[in-house]
Amino acid sequence: MDTHDVSNVPEYFRYLQAQKQNLKNAQAAKGRPARSPKSKDEILMQFMFRQMMRTEAPASPMNIRSSFLPPAYPPCVSPFSKLKKVMIKSLCLETHHRDQYLLLRTVTPTDTMTAVMAIVEDEDGSVLMLQLYNQEEELSGTHSLREGTVLVVNEPYVKVMADGDYGIRVDHLSDVWFIPEFDDLVPLSWRKRVTQADGNASSWKEKGSEHFEKGDYHSAIQCYSKTLEAHPSPELLLITQLNRALSFLKSYCFDAALRDVEDVLQVSELSEKALFRKAQALYQLRRFRESCQTHEILAEKYPDNNMAAHEYARASARLLEQNSGEYEFGKMILEAKKRQPPRLDRGTYIGPVTVKQTQSHGRGLFTTQAVKAGDLLFCEKAFAHAFHDENGSKDLRLLLNVDMDEATIGTQGELIELIVQKLSKNPSLLPGFVDLHHGTYKSVDVLEVGVIPIIDTFLVERIILLNSFGCPLLSRESHIRTVKGDDDTDKKHNKQFHSSGVWSMASYINHSCLSNARRSFIGDMMIVRASRDLPTNTELTFWYKSPMTRDPKESPVNLQHWGFKLFKTSKMNLRKIEDTISSLASTYCRPASEVPRVALDSPYLSLAAIYASSRNLKKAVEFGLMSLESLGFVIKGGKIPHVSDTPLVVQKWGLMTDGVVGCWMILCSAYQELAPTLASQAEGYARLSYRICVGEDETFDQTYSRLSNRVDGFLMTAK
Ligand SMILES: C[S@@+](CC[C@H](N)C(=O)[O-])C[C@H]1O[C@@H](n2cnc3c(N)ncnc32)[C@H](O)[C@@H]1O
């Protein structure tokens, strides 16, 4: 939705088809031995050379890197004890080696493109390229996957890569695990030094703390786990669990941190550190009420703990937002502009809405009480948000999905990585996420094997494909661009965002061209407001893609050259234009209040603007009202001559486009002279429409003013 979908753009369509053909060609090699014709030295040299070339290549702005999703395959769900070891020499191409595993170690440093890559060898010394997808960025850093790291790949999938070489591709995080040097699985010949696999509890704890000090939380956790296995004293047990909990917190594994501190609290129910870490883990899992409850105990028992007091205030603020829906939107805008990525520390407010079954299109979101246009329905923090800085130098990614025939430019690939990582670290979040619509995709129904959570990358990908939203940094900025924009290409780009995210509640809203709600964004917060008055139990709908941004060439009557600016300079006879628009209007057989006339609102708005600038204010009002009416608005009391004491009333709200705000402002300035009592009412409607379009109205006065030089009240200084 609003993502930069290029599936039908000829060059990308051809590229997608070429990838599909490559895949077909590769299938012809299925089952052949995966033995590379190149020698081990050649493979190593080639890898190192490519890595060097990439490091030295100057970064080119707006480069597009492509990544390509293979046909979906399930993650391994067999316990390791049931898998048989396989050697590289026995691997076959284009084959998933079910019920087998590879024991490997890296023999090169890593190279990171869309995957983390390294050359690996097995115990025979045979080598192959390994491509690990969806891993954390830090994996290729100093700690996790340095040269000599030993790892296991479950049920390896060997494929012919883009350059014709062979490689092992791992898409599911649970299909690869990194083995600590001290593990019994590591062959003696691969050990750099003789590590003691059976050290005592305190020495493991010391090692864990050394790793922690260096910021290597992954190794720290491994060593603390060894401490716990080595029968520590009761005191050491508690210390280690607390230390491991902290390492888990630092590694974003909040479920595991919570488990450790709960164990400590069983024994020592008022442990200050355990309570504090519990409150932190709950906060990060967005369980603000429980976090506050834990803080309450802390505050009572340890009133001098300033850090805890500070965190308590933070958790309380989130809980307040969650319960009240009251946000300081102006502050949020400033924060979103400052932060990179613009992830805001705010609670999610779910207002008068609930998920229910619809008659014909799965589940939908419904109102639980009557709401007014502009009311906040919910304000939701993204489950995951991948930001692309349009002014930055980071490459854009083209994601090709051959199963779904989709090609998207933007951050969809990054979103997959963020979500699989988040879920595998915090499986308690899995039920809420996999509940989202995933079409016909059937995933494995195993949630974990041993203690390892199973996250099906292709399920995540499908959910993202069907539920993610493209988003601007700020809807206000995109509103400003739309209002300023005088060129269709610009307008189109404005609705094809490269940043993207998943917002769970918003994912239950179905599409309708006659949308009755509108989404807007401040950083990774989505704000959804009613765009018309809605009775209780109304299904909410919004545009997945705005009907206003369709290609004007596909329009039955091409009015694109009647843009705002051209209109102003056009020598065309206005009368003739009016006649043409009115003959077009007469082709509609249903009233606009039932079926909006989306081809007409913009020409009418342009006429209103032209008449306003030539001081023909009566006509400006006439066409301003007609523009709104063509969007489905039913407005009473706005016509000129105005009957005194008759208020300006929107009896029915129509489609809420960005242009509606300026239209109300044109009316406002015309009424100032023709019917002064209506001016403030029109401005009030402009403010309300602005709130629906950009999510808030705290910035209205910085964006529109009756004193603006533009007839639509827009301030050219707005940014
Ligand atoms: C983001 S989900 C919306 C919630 C979904 N109906 C559910 O049950 O979870 C998007 C999917 O809903 C369905 N959908 C949305 N709008 C629809 C519409 N106007 N008509 C039919 N199906 C629709 C399509 O299957 C679409 O892929």
UniProtKB/TrEMBL annotation:
Keywords: TPR repeat
Residues in SET domain copies: 351-545
Record protein name field: SET domain-containing protein
UniProt superkingdom: Eukaryota
SMART domains, alphabetized: SET (SM00317), TPR (SM00028)
Mapped TPR repeat ranges: 201-234
